[in-house]
Write a structure and sequence with these properties.
Layout (H helix, E strand, L loop, with lengths): L19 E4 L11 H9 L2 H12 L5 H10 L6 H10 L6 H10 L3 E9 H4 L9 E5 L28 H15 L6 E5 L5 H4 L4 E5 L3 H4 L4 E3 L4 H6 L6
Parallel strand pairs: 1-2, 1-4, 2-3, 4-5, 5-6
Helix pairs in contact: 1-2, 1-4, 2-3
Length: 236
């Protein structure tokens, strides 16, 4: 079937209530990868970051601890490296098309991720109405003399998101866009999405692990967001 056929989810005649579609990033919009891994590949420290990722997945590191240890490995990080990581990342196909269709339906789409905000917010250019990521130290511009080093300040634990933060941000976005919580759809893949899945009526497990599959309304395995979006029935 042509993937374009999945970008339908037509509005029901006379519908007035908008929906809010909430997307995770790591492992969801990114196929089999994470923002930190993509950045680490550019810096030649992928093995070290994957070790941290495993420890985080096993709850051996808190989100602030993960951020602090990752930052310590990224002394050479610049905005140009972040851009290269973003551009070369294994994104699912059809992200722009899905978000364009959501907005054409009078609905809203947002990305909520524990990953660095300086990576997540680039998705606004792809059509996300809002993006929320952890506030890692900002990235310096490339300096000809190499004097700019990362991080320029310590990680502030208060700015690092947690799984419960996703629920709070979702509530804030509902208020911002005038959407009821009963009209939210969440897309995610892992334990960090479990709390949000438990609070919304419709959820899609995208290439997901066992932590969220049992919570999800629908399951998708593949590399095209149009197919995952196509599983969601139109609102009644």
């Amino acid at each position: 079937m042509d993937p374009a056929e999945y970008v339908s989810a037509p509005q029901a005649p006379g519908r007035r209530r908008p929906r809010l579609h909430l997307f995770d990033l790591d492992g969801t919009l990114l196929y089999g990868s994470a923002a930190a891994v993509e950045i680490a590949q550019q810096l030649g420290v992928e093995r070290e970051i994957r070790t941290l990722e495993r420890a985080f997945a096993q709850r051996e590191l808190t989100p602030p601890q993960f951020a602090a240890r990752a930052c310590a490995l990224w002394a050479e990080l610049t905005d140009e490296i972040v851009e290269a990581a973003f551009t070369g990342a294994p994104w699912l196909a059809g992200i722009r098309e899905v978000w364009e269709q959501i907005r054409a339906n009078g609905e809203h789409c947002a990305v909520i991720s524990l990953s660095p905000d300086f990576f997540v917010r680039r998705l606004r250019d792809w059509g996300a109405d809002a993006t929320h990521g952890s506030r890692w130290p900002e990235v310096p511009r490339a300096m000809p003399n190499g004097s700019a080093r990362y991080p320029t300040r310590p990680v502030d634990p208060a700015g690092i998101l947690s799984p419960s933060s996703k629920v709070k941000i979702a509530q804030e976005l509902c208020a911002q866009f005038g959407v009821a919580s009963r009209d939210c759809v969440a897309y995610g893949d892992s334990l960090s999405d479990a709390e949000l899945f438990a609070t919304v009526p419709v959820s899609v497990a995208v290439n997901a692990d066992e932590h969220v599959r049992s919570l999800a309304s629908y399951h998708y395995a593949g590399r095209d967001l149009r197919e995952a979006y196509g599983l969601v029935p139109p609102p009644r």
